[in-house]
Amino acid sequence: MLPLAATAAADGSCPLGPADRRGSYNVHLGKHSLNGRERGSQVIQATQSYRHPQYSTVTHVNDLMLIKLQRPARLGTNIRPITLPSKCVSPGTSCTVSGWGTTTSPDATYPQELQCTNVSIISTADCKKVYQDLLKESMLCAGIPNSKTNACNGDSGGPLVCGGVLQGLVSWGTFPCGQPNDPGVYTEVCKFIPWIRKTMRS
């Protein structure tokens, strides 16, 4: 996350990305710091991962994955479900993105504390001026014009929350991170509600 500014992380050298690591791993809930256990946090084994069947490692379309936990999480102050969107978010909406990704780029400095920053939704037309054909229908852009504030390596899969609603998941962007006027690109969650509901029912 550039700059420093109920979340889950996976065990390993970097936070879980939305379409990787489909083997066995633990999911940490309610964590703010990666150092040790925190009051109200939980560790639950993942029993299955459901990558979107049309995910592409080349274009990053359909870049999301659902995780089935071995047991239900105990809800509390630090662990709560997030609201899924009933409609897609509008350009100009203020949102918050969070994660444990690097706070420097191109050299990586990974924080131990959860980072967050505010960004605004960028219109598809304006985002296509930057990324042209790389921007696909299932993608959403967010950033701050003329600012280096952005998500970065290690934030992949992190939530883009707008008014308490999960509107995006960190997917990709330019490298080095934090290029002014190069918005971050997110999976647009509203486009996947039918798949999410169907997968959860199964």
UniProtKB/TrEMBL annotation:
Keyword Protease attributed: yes
GO MF annotation: an example: serine-type endopeptidase activity
Keywords, sorted A to Z: Disulfide bond, Hydrolase, Protease, Serine protease
Any one cellular-component term (Gene Ontology): secretory granule
Span of domain Peptidase S1: 14-201
Gene Ontology process terms (BP): proteolysis
Keyword rRNA processing part of the UniProt annotation: no
Pfam annotation, one family: Trypsin
Similarity-based family: Belongs to the peptidase S1 family. Snake venom subfamily.
Name listed for the protein in its UniProt record: Kallikrein-7 isoform X2
Organism: Phascolarctos cinereus (Koala)
Gene that encodes the chain: KLK7
